[in-house]
Amino acid sequence: MKLYSSLAAILLLSALGTDALAFDNPLVQQRADPHVTLHTDGWYYFTATVPEYDRIELRRARSLDALGKAKAQTVWRRHAGGPMSANIWAPELHRIDGKWYLYFTAGRHEAPLDIRLYVLENPAANPLQGQWTERGQLDTGWESFALDATTFAVHGQRYLAWTQRPPTTDKHVTGIYIAKMASPTAIAGPATLLTLPEYPWERIKFDVNEAPAALVKNGRVFLTYSASATDANYALGMLTAKEGANLLDKSSWTKSPVPVFASSEATGQYGPGHNSFTTTRDGKQRILVYHARNYRDIPGDSLHDPNRHTRAQIIRWRPDGSPDFGQPVSDNK
Questions:
Q1: Per-residue pLDDT tens for 197-231?
Q2: Which residue in the list 33, 65, 148, 231 is annotated as catalytic?
Q3: Of residues 202, 210, 231, 305, which has the active-site annotation?
Q4: Is residue 110 flagged as an active site residue?
Q5: Scanning 83, 167, 227, 248, which has its CA 20 to 30 A from the CA of 240?
Q6: Domains identified in the chain and CATH numbers
Q7: How close are the terminal C-alpha atoms of the chain, in Å?
Q8: Known catalytic residue at 305
């Protein structure tokens, strides 16, 4: 019986692949706001915020576990002054209509927190090659603090989701917006505000809803976001809509009243958030990619602490078809 059980376990591992069960976390040291995509060429492409906030890096590997040892290539650096000269944050790499696009956040050297959304474009088959062209600011319809753009498609319609300060307030509050896209560099029509910080867990130190990420499965669109300060209080919330609903109608979305992913003393992981989603190589399992620290206390401003490391874990599913993110897994290296 023992031999049979061992053989069954080996066969299961072979069928699922090792990354279906666990990853060598943390995947990449000192890389926050991670974005991973598995392209049709069989490579996992990775980008993230670097601690210096001064450039955009790309790397690729055949497995998620290999990303940490993959060569990081700088594909763009901040300007010396003016737009795009400070706080280069949260790059995301997307393949749209045969070209690569990098969506990212940037401020100005003279006003580093006066941040906006920007786009780079590259027609090469491999985004680590070819020429990246600046396509300028992504206009959201009004000028205010804006960051963390992501894009996704449902039933052939592409959407942009992002974070921005509402045009009607001077308060330091950010919400999640959505709009249809007319092209990879422009939205079509007005934006819809989906959520603002309203629960106590979304308003610790700062009133923040930011960093949306979309997961489409089981007939629904799950839109995760991060809330509160970027320390141990950082946590994931989630909005849910039916796949066939009008995603530009706020009433189509249901908001979870509690965090769906948060710090865990049991596993020693704090401030998990700013996630993206990818899949196993066979496409059968969805993966949550996120950053977290392995300690709670941070002296000074948490944005100046470089140790938000990239991590990943398999998503489990509840009987009702909604994702169960569980708790952030322990470091295993």
A1: 999 999 999 999 999 999 999 999 999 999 999 99
A2: 33
A3: 210
A4: no
A5: 167
A6: 33-137 (2.115.10.20), 148-333 (2.115.10.20)
A7: 33
A8: no
